[in-house]
Amino acid sequence: MRYVCLVHVDQSLIDAATPEELANMDRDNQRANAELTASGHLVLDLALKAPDTARIVRSRGGKVSATDGPYVESKEHLGGFFVIEARSLDEATAIARREPMARFGTIEVRAEMGISWQQPKPA
Hints:
The structure is a single chain. The chain is of the alpha+beta class. The chain contains 3 helices and 6 strands; from the N terminus they run βααββββαβ. It has a 4-stranded antiparallel beta sheet with strand order 2-5-1-6. The chain has a two-stranded antiparallel sheet with strand order 3-4. A hairpin with a 2-residue loop joins strand 3 and strand 4. The two termini are 26 Å apart.
Protein backbone atom coordinates (compact mmCIF):
# COMPACT_ATOMS: atom_id res chain seq x y z
CA MET A 1 0.00 0.00 0.00
CA ARG A 2 1.12 3.55 -0.63
CA TYR A 3 1.44 6.13 2.10
CA VAL A 4 1.95 9.86 1.73
CA CYS A 5 4.23 11.35 4.36
CA LEU A 6 3.57 15.08 4.68
CA VAL A 7 6.56 16.99 6.03
CA HIS A 8 5.40 19.92 8.15
CA VAL A 9 8.28 22.30 8.87
CA ASP A 10 8.63 24.58 11.89
CA GLN A 11 10.33 27.55 10.23
CA SER A 12 11.59 28.88 13.57
CA LEU A 13 13.64 25.69 14.01
CA ILE A 14 15.08 26.03 10.51
CA ASP A 15 15.87 29.71 11.10
CA ALA A 16 17.60 28.89 14.42
CA ALA A 17 19.73 26.09 12.92
CA THR A 18 23.40 26.69 12.26
CA PRO A 19 24.78 26.31 8.73
CA GLU A 20 26.46 23.10 9.92
CA GLU A 21 23.16 21.71 11.26
CA LEU A 22 21.43 22.52 7.96
CA ALA A 23 24.25 20.88 5.98
CA ASN A 24 24.01 17.79 8.20
CA MET A 25 20.24 17.67 7.71
CA ASP A 26 20.67 17.92 3.92
CA ARG A 27 23.28 15.14 3.98
CA ASP A 28 21.07 12.99 6.21
CA ASN A 29 18.06 13.55 3.90
CA GLN A 30 20.08 12.45 0.88
CA ARG A 31 21.27 9.34 2.74
CA ALA A 32 17.74 8.50 3.93
CA ASN A 33 16.33 8.90 0.40
CA ALA A 34 19.07 6.65 -1.00
CA GLU A 35 18.27 4.00 1.63
CA LEU A 36 14.52 4.19 0.91
CA THR A 37 15.18 3.94 -2.82
CA ALA A 38 17.49 0.95 -2.35
CA SER A 39 14.92 -0.83 -0.15
CA GLY A 40 12.15 -0.24 -2.70
CA HIS A 41 10.07 1.90 -0.34
CA LEU A 42 10.46 5.36 -1.93
CA VAL A 43 8.04 6.19 -4.75
CA LEU A 44 8.37 9.99 -4.88
CA ASP A 45 10.01 12.76 -2.84
CA LEU A 46 9.42 16.50 -3.31
CA ALA A 47 10.41 19.56 -1.31
CA LEU A 48 8.12 22.58 -1.62
CA LYS A 49 8.88 26.27 -1.77
CA ALA A 50 7.79 28.52 1.10
CA PRO A 51 4.06 29.19 1.65
CA ASP A 52 4.37 32.81 0.57
CA THR A 53 5.10 31.54 -2.98
CA ALA A 54 1.82 29.60 -3.11
CA ARG A 55 -1.47 30.45 -4.76
CA ILE A 56 -4.77 29.19 -3.39
CA VAL A 57 -7.48 28.31 -5.93
CA ARG A 58 -11.06 28.00 -4.70
CA SER A 59 -14.35 27.28 -6.48
CA ARG A 60 -17.56 28.18 -4.65
CA GLY A 61 -21.02 28.65 -6.09
CA GLY A 62 -19.72 28.57 -9.67
CA LYS A 63 -17.12 31.28 -8.99
CA VAL A 64 -13.41 30.58 -9.03
CA SER A 65 -10.93 32.73 -7.16
CA ALA A 66 -7.16 32.65 -6.74
CA THR A 67 -5.37 34.19 -3.78
CA ASP A 68 -1.66 34.47 -3.11
CA GLY A 69 -0.42 32.49 -0.11
CA PRO A 70 0.14 31.76 2.59
CA TYR A 71 -3.33 30.32 3.17
CA VAL A 72 -3.06 30.08 6.96
CA GLU A 73 -0.72 31.51 9.54
CA SER A 74 0.68 28.70 11.66
CA LYS A 75 3.85 27.63 13.39
CA GLU A 76 4.40 24.83 10.86
CA HIS A 77 3.88 24.75 7.11
CA LEU A 78 3.89 22.02 4.50
CA GLY A 79 7.52 21.83 3.42
CA GLY A 80 7.29 18.77 1.22
CA PHE A 81 6.15 15.20 1.00
CA PHE A 82 7.29 11.75 0.09
CA VAL A 83 5.32 8.75 -1.06
CA ILE A 84 6.35 5.31 0.13
CA GLU A 85 5.30 1.70 -0.31
CA ALA A 86 4.78 -0.09 2.99
CA ARG A 87 2.93 -3.20 4.17
CA SER A 88 1.10 -1.38 6.97
CA LEU A 89 0.62 1.91 8.77
CA ASP A 90 3.04 0.65 11.42
CA GLU A 91 5.76 0.04 8.82
CA ALA A 92 5.07 3.44 7.20
CA THR A 93 5.30 5.09 10.63
CA ALA A 94 8.60 3.32 11.32
CA ILE A 95 9.94 4.67 8.02
CA ALA A 96 8.70 8.20 8.82
CA ARG A 97 10.40 8.07 12.23
CA ARG A 98 13.75 7.83 10.45
CA GLU A 99 13.05 10.93 8.33
CA PRO A 100 15.70 13.57 9.16
CA MET A 101 13.26 16.46 8.61
CA ALA A 102 11.32 15.33 11.69
CA ARG A 103 13.99 17.23 13.65
CA PHE A 104 12.59 20.46 12.19
CA GLY A 105 8.86 19.74 12.39
CA THR A 106 6.54 16.76 12.06
CA ILE A 107 5.80 13.99 9.59
CA GLU A 108 2.13 13.18 8.98
CA VAL A 109 1.61 9.67 7.59
CA ARG A 110 -1.55 8.98 5.57
CA ALA A 111 -2.63 5.93 3.61
CA GLU A 112 -3.87 6.44 0.08
CA MET A 113 -7.56 5.88 -0.52
CA GLY A 114 -6.94 3.42 -3.32
CA ILE A 115 -8.56 5.54 -6.00
CA SER A 116 -6.97 7.84 -8.54
CA TRP A 117 -8.28 10.80 -10.49
CA GLN A 118 -5.40 10.50 -12.92
CA GLN A 119 -6.43 10.13 -16.55
CA PRO A 120 -5.45 6.82 -18.13
CA LYS A 121 -2.63 7.08 -20.66
CA PRO A 122 -3.66 6.52 -24.28
CA ALA A 123 -2.73 3.12 -25.68
